[in-house]
């Protein structure tokens, strides 16, 4: 979790003091019109990509690829962490999440009454990058992720919305998702 906290802090610091530079499209990550497909607790889902960014920090020796996609009632986030390299790609391979490893994870937020609520911790999963093209700035991969609700033991209602205790994302596929590169100085 230390990697997550450091990168999130760096990200917000860059936004606040304007010390970031980026290359890529101006549409929030160049991913308009792209989709990610998967099963959400066994139900087929197609989520529209709204943002994809590769954050690079040479100072902290880290990279983070974050892809965000949405449906009408949920926002999904996939995050991959690696060490810093000068190229504009995230390394291919498996990114694991468990109680002891935080190389990558998927996360779900529910959209309720104009707000977003994240209520599940990623427990176990594998996000896999099968191809990443630094020239085209595209990433391709697959994922599975299990999450459990924070502070709950059963399915529950939140602001009138039924929320499952356990979320299983399976058969996840994303293909040539275009991302923007953000250099954090």
SSE order in H/E notation? HEEEEEEEEEEEEEE
For the terminal residues, how far apart are their CA atoms?
22 Å
Number of helices: 1
Mean pLDDT: 86
Largest beta-sheet details: 12 strands, mixed
Q: Runs with pLDDT <50, length 5+?
A: 1-29
- Kindly estimate the percentage of residues that lie in beta strands according to DSSP: over 45%
Question: How many extended strands?
Answer: 14
Structural class: mainly beta
The geometry reads as globular
Oligomer: single chain
Taking Cα atoms only, what radius of gyration do you get, to the nearest Å?
Answer: 16 Å
**Helix content estimate:** under 10%
Relevant terms:
1 helix; 185 residues; 12-stranded mixed sheet; mainly beta; globular; two-stranded antiparallel sheet; disordered N terminus
Task: Describe this structure as you would to a colleague.
9% of the residues lie in helices and 61% in strands. A hairpin with a 2-residue loop joins β11 and β12. The chain has one helix spanning 2-17, and strands at 20-23, 35-40, 43-57, 62-70, 74-83, 93-97, 104-112, 115-118, 120-133, 138-149, 156-158, 161-163, 166-178, 180-184. The chain has 185 residues and is mostly beta strands. Mean pLDDT is 86; it is low at 1-29. The longest helix has 16 residues, at 2-17.
